[in-house]
Design goal:
By secondary structure, this protein is of the alpha+beta class. It is built from 8 helices and 16 strands. The strands form 3 sheets. It has a 6-stranded antiparallel β-barrel with strand order 11-14-13-12-15-16. It has a 5-stranded mixed sheet with strand order 8-9-7-1-10.
Length: 311
């Protein structure tokens, strides 16, 4: 668990191969994107980043994404398998606007740099071929995501290693993500998910003007007081073995939902999981049974608070 400790208390890094990138240029790009995405992009003028979602008119997710604005161009950090289709779909929505979109996933690499040592390392890097940097949004970790040309990625990783950075594999990254209660698109949420079901409040602006799917989100917030039919919850697994996700979840013999991610938590010393359950089963303390017969209990998210992770 050396890499786990490094991400929590030192310096760790990983190649984010599961993420793709869409390059958006043109003078109208931010205004155009602002009419499509759930978060307010106006504060990003001049540079910045935010977490957002792109919804259907019915309020269901097309994807989640990280918007990275440099002041002269915009990068959309999206799930790699969806990048080509998302680019085509965005391109069809350009009419008279001065906007161009391009899938650059094969020409841009993202490296996550995590842990308390991140700031000191990056302050010492002057020429790493960086295209953009942004806080490590939606990772469950403190740090930054660095976007750079593939030829420079290996050099950055070598410099990180020489500075004491520890490579972080996919398995440990998933442990840290689940401990933080962060759902992953195409794993814990998908095209049938309404962002409020997955707890994506960070991705939703409450003050901006119209965006696609906003009517549904506002209706749930204002008329239904945030009540949704199902919700992402944590499960404390009452067994030594980690369940093999995905699994159906039942309670008192009734279908309750679906477990989607399961890991062993070094911090808690037990298996934990993320699941989306129907509203009547989401109260903390509710006992459930997994498809394989394992017992579990609903618990609040996150499993590990940022303050606890830093101890």
């Amino acid at each position: 668990m050396y890499a786990y400790e490094a991400a929590r208390r030192g310096l760790a890094f990983r190649r984010r191969h599961e993420r793709g990138a869409i390059h958006v240029t043109g003078a109208d790009r931010l205004e155009w994107l602002n009419g499509l995405l759930t978060n307010d992009l106006k504060p990003l003028t001049g540079g910045g980043s935010c977490y957002a979602a792109w919804l259907t008119p019915q309020g269901r997710m097309i994807t989640d994404l990280i918007v990275v604005e440099t002041g002269g161009e915009t990068w959309l950090d999206v799930p790699a398998p969806l990048a080509p289709a998302l680019t085509e779909r965005l391109d069809r929505l350009i009419f008279a606007e001065n906007v161009r979109v391009e899938d650059v996933s094969q020409r841009l690499t993202s490296v996550g740099v995590y842990g308390p040592g991140t700031g000191g390392f990056l302050n010492g890097v002057t020429d790493d071929g960086t295209v953009a940097r942004a806080p490590a949004i939606a990772s469950g970790l403190a740090g930054v995501h660095v976007y750079l040309l593939p030829a420079r990625a290996a050099g950055l990783e070598e410099a990180l290693s020489h500075s004491g950075g520890i490579p972080l594999d996919d398995e440990i990254a998933a442990v840290l993500r689940v401990e933080a209660g962060v759902p992953e698109f195409l794993v814990d949420m998908g095209e049938e998910t309404i962002p409020l079901e997955a707890g994506l409040d960070e991705a939703l602006s409450q003050t901006k003007g119209c965006y696609v799917g906003q009517e549904i989100i506002v209706r749930i917030r204002d008329r239904a007081h945030g009540r949704v039919a199902r919700r992402l919850v944590g499960l404390s697994v009452l067994a030594e073995a980690v369940p093999r996700a995905p699994l159906e979840v039942r309670s008192d013999g009734r279908a309750a939902g679906r477990l989607t991610s399961a890991v062993f938590s070094p911090m808690l010393q037990r298996p934990i999981a993320l699941a989306t359950l129907l509203r009547e089963f989401i109260e903390p303390g509710t006992g459930v049974t997994l498809e394989d017969g394992t017992a579990a209990v609903v618990v609040p998210l996150p499993f590990v608070l940022p303050s606890e992770a830093a101890v």
